[in-house]
Amino acid sequence: MKYLWRIIKFTSSLKRYYLAISVMTILLAIMSQLVPLFTKAAIDQVTKNGGQTNVGLVALYAFLIFLTDIGQSLFSNISGYWGDILSVKLRQFMSNKYYEHLLSLPQRYFDTELTGTIINRMNRGIQDISDFIQVFSNNFLQFIFSTIFTLAIVAYYAWPVALMLAMLYPIFIWMTAKTSHKWQFYQRKINQDIDIASGRFAESIGQVRVVKSFIQEARELKFFDQQFRKATKTVTPQSRYWHERDNLRRTILSVIFFFVFVFIFVETARGRYSVGTMVLLIQYSMLIRIPIFSISFLVDRTQRAVANSKEYFEVMEQQPDFTDKPGAMKLKVKEGRIDFDNVSFSYDLKQPVLKNINLAIAPDTKVALVGESGEGKTTLTNLLLRFYEPEKGQILIDDQNINDVTQASLRQQIGVVFQDSALFSGTIKENICYAKPSVTDDQLLAAAKAANAHEFIEKLPNGYDTEIGERGLKLSGGQKQRIAIARAILKDAPILVLDEATSSLDSKSENMVQQALERLMRGRTTIIIAHRLSTIQNVDQIITIRNGCIDEVGTPSKLAHSGGIYDQLLKLQHGQTETTKKKLKEFEIAA
Predict the structure, then answer these.
(1) In a 3-state reduction of DSSP, which class is residue 433?
(2) Which CATH architecture has domain 363-387+407-586?
(3) pLDDT along the chain (591 residues), means of 10
(4) Buried b / exposed e across 157-166, counting CB within 10 Å, b at 16+?
(5) In sequence order, what are the residues at sequence separation of 6 or more whose Cβ sits closer than 8 angstroms to the Cβ of residue 93?
(6) Are 341 and 396 in contact (CB under 8 A)?
(7) Assigned CATH class of 15-316
(8) Residue 154 · residue 284 · CB < 8 Å
(9) What pTM did the predictor assign?
């Protein structure tokens, strides 16, 4: 019950809908109690001794029953309407809260979770919760109030019958609670298998070209099918277990109802109750019998809501690794100097990735990070963007500790061009203006021209309003990169991070992208995760990383004969042997 209360408490902003439905529910519960009372009165009038039946009064009772039916229909539909509105409002509210919370979580959370699993938790949890609230508001509350009123009226006429009927609920609840734990164990296993299948599904669809190019459609389908088969196999014992227990519950309830009806019939035959009272007691017993026998459906919905709300709230309970300090100021960048002061970091708090990094990057310079794969090049830029925090040391921008400023202002001052252009579905204009949606058309065109993108955009059927598909799949690699560069140009941040965007392009596209990058880097402090020797040779400073430590720092000319990493790469650049290619690949370098 605590999870259900948690849902209602969490969605307290929707309390006016809960209140409206509660009022309608109480009115419905009251209306449902009137028909047996009017029926009893009519029967007592018809069976009155002496044959003095008041026909007009009987007709009035019939008319009152008619009005009650009309009222029940009206209140039921009003309640249903508000329940439907509440359900969709709840879905919107919980989806927004989930998404908002996800966006606040650290990069570390997304490093360990499959995209499909994250999406599944939202869809499954919110769907089941909203369905439950809809059923709860439209049916369950009415059952509760109807039961309370029914037992009160029955107790007035025949307290032994009320006592027997009241016994139904603790017995049913106790038996259901005994069933619930095991049912939820099965449900968690089903959810896990479906999450794995959905996660792989999302990956495969997202990289469908890889799947097709390696002719692995059958393999991916087989994996997906096997995971769903596991879930299906779990459903079988879960369903059998539930329905076996439900059959036992219903049998026990039927036994209790048997004694209820026997008691009513016998006591009426003995003359304790009139025929009207007998009919009234039977009708009220049926009013309780119908919901309690159909309550299995509600219990099933409730259990699903409880099981899946746990997953939803487990995500909502995840806390960011770090937040802005109270009173954090906005970062102000005048020059663009960057200092790493004795910085150490590890992803798993065990294996260090960076150890005691001391590094000074002067304003308006181009710096290339060079090192083997996994040595921490990207980690350095992730720390600068504060996707993670150092375990030791500090990072300064113009003598301001980035931990002391707001994350938003920090990232506002840093432009990023990824090796994967990372575009969104939508139009070219929307992607270029991603950081500044309100820019003028002149600013948009200027950014596109500076990125060497305007010419190819104009040739597209709808120009800047051309839809590019998911992740820009309708564009070539060079076109995507130029849009990403235009996006960074429009952001106009004083510090720039380039996960070199030319490494996988043909020579013509590379030349156009390189020209755009040169324009972008002017007047900015630029950190390049280098993938080409041609890029490394044109920077102001090279920083080589070995075993998580700074190995060398210097200009290309200084390090060309130092015997270090850069010197080795220069000597390897013209080699064509497999050993040479393998060595370059270790450094993620293309000659």
Answers:
(1) coil
(2) 3-Layer(aba) Sandwich (3.40)
(3) 68 80 81 81 74 76 86 84 81 83 80 74 74 70 76 85 82 73 78 78 66 72 83 83 81 84 86 84 80 65 70 79 86 91 84 88 91 84 90 92 91 84 80 84 87 86 82 75 85 85 62 78 87 78 88 87 80 66 65 53
(4) bbeebbebbe
(5) 11, 13, 14
(6) yes
(7) mainly alpha
(8) yes
(9) 0.68
